[in-house]
Amino acid sequence: MMLMRFLRCSVFLFAFVAPGPAANAQDAMPVWQTNANEFVKDILNRSGSPSAVLIVFENQSSSPAADPALLKRTILDNFQKAGVRVVKPELALAEIQIVFSEDWQNHVWVASIRQGPGVQTVIRRFARVQRDGGSRAPTLTIRKTLVWQQETPILDFATEGQNLYVLEPDQLVVYGNDDGHWRMRQTLAISHERPWPRDLRGRLQVNGLQITANFPGTLCTGSSSPPAMQCRLGDDSWRIDQGTLSAFFSPARNFFTGVLAGANAGESVPAFFSGAAIQTPDSRQWVFAGTDGRARIYMNNLASPVAMAGDLGSNLAAIQSGCGSGHQVLVSSANDLDRNDGLQAIEIQNREAIPASSVTELPGPLMALWPGETGQVVHGIVWSLTTGRYEAWSFSAGCGG
Question: Which of 3, 226, 302, 368 is the most exposed place for a label (fewest CB within 10 A)?
């Protein structure tokens, strides 16, 4: 399954500015400055306070806590006050890379400390301050329904009429609704000439009796009546959403190459884990969760992103709610495989992503998130930390916070 977790500070940006400096000596120290002081202390405690270091800064935040130059100067001053010299690479006892990033609610600062062959990491999070008028209460509620659960891995699922289709690594299982209970009706074998890659992903689509299942480097097609499934090697594009967004998947990995197909054939974006496209009366919008840990937001064309956010989760999908703007994106939260995940709806407004719901907690890590049978439904696969089972969930969004 997808073990594509890394430092994932959620997916998007808010409308924020840094707090201003204290008006006079009686005022409290700005929050960002207090955190800068503590951040340096944490770094020195973790690294053992080397006497000479090389420090490299990178800003990945669209709304940093303060001017990046001021942040850099403040952090360097703290090192010098602690008796640590900032030197050239050839004189350094340790190399420290500091990245200013963000998640939905927090500034996120990450320091990677390299001493000899080892690398240590220090992370500091603190709440971001919204611009006046930039806040609003969540307008949506995410509804979740448990559809199915089992001991073995699930890649995707679909419902069609009275049938439930569950895609597994080596078979497609069809269940029928028997007085409110799912009963197995048939299994269709999934053949593949090459070994599956690690962290296997799969995409299932059912249209009437016709079945399409995408795997890395393999395409399977068939029907439920008469039951049949044929699989072949192939680099066919995967349909990502209910609209026109399609892309090519790496045959040996667990992500999309970035080369698009369908209505966007001939265009490309950086490699990504998941993507969503939204059509509003005023614009066409795309969001891609990149393999480099950054979300890229595009408006009207894919020439270049209008906004980026660093360090994000890998799962997102478009959904239609009929509330707010009517179109949202469901985004997974920033937890690892040993913690419960969460799901939140966001809207893209003024080239930024605004939270449109509170976070809905899931019973375990979210392994996959795909559009459902209609634009109003999204399907998710969760590995329950309580039961150890793989669970198929259906998500929708309704009005009201």
Answer: 226
- What is the CB neighbour count within 10 angstroms for residue 16? 21
Q: Hey, what CATH class is 140-399 in?
A: mainly beta
d(CA 203, CA 213): 6
SS3 279: strand
Is 32-127 a CATH 3.40.50.10610 domain?
Answer: yes
Locus of tokens 């209910």: 242
Whole-angstrom Cα distance, residue 229 to residue 188?
6
Identify each DSSP E strand in 250-337 by its residue range: 256-262, 272-279, 284-290, 294-299, 307-310, 316-320, 327-332
Q: Residues 29, 20: contact at Cβ < 8 Å?
A: no
pLDDT in tens, 254-304: 999 999 998 889 999 999 999 999 887 778 899 999 998 888 999 899 988
User: Is residue 186 within 8 Å of residue 174, measured between CB atoms?
Assistant: yes
Domain with CATH 2.130.10.10 in the chain: 140-399
C-alpha span between 95 and 363 (Å, rounded): 39
> For the whole model, what pTM was predicted?
0.69
